[in-house]
Amino acid sequence: MSAYALLLLENTYLPGVLAVRKALSDTKAQFPVVLLYSAKNVNKDTLALFAASKLFSDLINIDDNILVSNSPHTLEFVLNRPDLAYTLSKINLWRLVEYSKLVYLDADTLPLQNLDHLFAQNFDASQVMAAPDCGWPDLFNSGVMVLQPNMTVFQELMDLYESTESFDGADQGLLNHYFNPGLYHGGTSRWLRLPFIYNCTLNSHYEYFPALQRYFQDIKVFHFIGDKKPWDRNYAAQLRKDPSLFKVADNKNVYELWHEVYESIEIDGHSQNAILQISEKAEPGHVATVEAVEAVETPQPQPPVVHHQYYYKEPESEPEKYEENRGEAWKLNESRGPNKWEDPSESEEEKEDTRELDTKELVHSLSQLDVESPQDDYASTHPIFPWEKSAARQKPTRSFSARTSLPTTLTKIPFTAAFDNGSELENYIASRDQAERPETLQEIKKDEQLDEQESQELEKLAP
Ligand SMILES: O=c1ccn([C@@H]2O[C@H](COP(=O)(O)OP(=O)(O)O[C@H]3O[C@H](CO)[C@@H](O)[C@H](O)[C@H]3O)[C@@H](O)[C@H]2O)c(=O)[nH]1
Ligand SMILES: [Mn+2]
To answer: Which region ranges are annotated with the description Disordered (predicted)?
Structure first.
């Protein structure tokens, strides 16, 4: 048996799921449609309505295997989509082995043409069919996939989930990692590329409108990727009226097309608005983590639920003010270690001495840097500034030979762990400083003189 599969992890995507389901009917899909959902996060009355209306041939509760992002930092700060914390749960598609083939559609897709022919494609269970992602076309977008459920693949995906951070923090990164191993390094791809018209994703920074105009009639599925969805009320209202947006069909833009489908929904006498009202009546508790699903009895802390624009709530407290005088790290609440320069027993002279030594050490290290001297006086033969033209311009007085390795004084900086006890380390530092000091002082003096000389020369030459 084959089926279309949709995913509803949370109430906020309900309008999307309803629209995809309606669009499948509108495009005369002949295959059943199954819904994977999180019972903890989808309103019970909505689910009851789904069950009664037989809108879906199978309602599959995946609460026993909700997968939370294994790379939340990437999700939040690189992909910028903390709201996708649970989309790795898509992996559950591969364990539905009672289905021989699934055509998976994200809740923010809009099928525009019949897709039944996808079920006739023959491929191996270790492969996946998907269209390229508009942001990185060598990878696939995981919003539309043709796949064959298979326990080996499911287990391998779970192993990857447990062992390796998804590179986008969500499902698309992990699935591409799995089906596109060794991309750019000779790996054999198990991704079968569907044409872009099977998952037309446009981003707001670059849209290739001429192609959209040329091929719109061929687009099978449009996909509203990104954090703004057509059902976000304020946003969609704006976009539907935006005259600058490209009209794709019947003088309508894609948002208008989505709404046309959405507004035509009617399930057992309920309009889409009535269904939405049911779903918004009581907010169910959100799943905190995978462990929270497993340990049902133990109350878990609630994760921040990030809603889309329409659901955005004002923060309850003012953000903390930046305190310039306290430095960058004060909020980290780290305990402070003792700083030598803050030791009250240390005299002002001692402090001065330490600083001086540090500088000397640095100057000495820098003097060890090997830099090749110029072959000729490049500036006098290629003048840029007027004084560079002067015949009186001195040749460089100092030269450095080519740097081949790190200066020894830097590479030999002692590492505390190499010494058995503190006093041994202190002795080492003392003896090293003694040995280097005279030479370093001389060099500093010489350098200072040369600097002074050079700046005087330049002052004389400057117009
Ligand atoms: O709170 C949520 C979040 C997601 N979903 C489901 O998960 C899907 C993926 O989220 P979506 O907002 O559609 O992600 P995209 O903006 O499409 O982002 C891209 O990146 C995601 C993370 O890798 C992939 O899941 C998508 O397929 C890919 O298009 C949705 O369509 C829903 O089916 C929910 O039901 N509730
Ligand atoms: Mn999507």
So the answer is: 314-357, 369-403, 431-463
CA of 448 to the centre of ligand 1 (A): 63
Nearest to 207 by CA among 180, 245, 156: 245
Strand pairing report for 136-147 and 270-271: unpaired
Ligand 1 near 131 CB (within 6 A): no
Cα 4-168-106 angle, rounded to 5 deg: 20
Residues 6+ apart with CB under 8 A from 306: 82, 83
Determine the Cα–Cα distance for residues 286 and 10; give it in Å rounded to an integer: 8
User: Which amino acid appears at position 31 of this protein?
Assistant: F
HSE-up of 349 (CA within 13 Å, CB side)?
A: 0
CA 16-19-24 angle, 5° bins: 125
- 37-57 confidence digits (pLDDT tens): 999 999 999 999 999 999 999
For the CA of 109, the closest atom of ligand 1 is 31
The answer to whether 227 touches 80, Cβ cutoff 8 Å, is yes
Which DSSP letter does residue 339 get?
P
Starting from the CA of residue 84, give the closest ligand.
Answer: 1
User: Which stretches within 368-407 are classed as H helix?
Assistant: 378-381
- Point out the ligand 1 atom lying closest to the alpha carbon of residue 226: 16
Q: Angle between the 254-263 and 233-241 helix axes, to the nearest 10 degrees? A: 120
The count of other CB atoms within 10 Å of the CB of residue 389 is 12
Is the CB of residue 171 below 6 angstroms from any atom belonging to ligand 1?
Answer: yes
- DSSP 3-state of 249: strand
The DSSP symbol for 335 reads P
131 Cα: distance to centroid of ligand 1 (angstroms): 15
The mean pLDDT of 387-393, rounded to a whole number, is 55
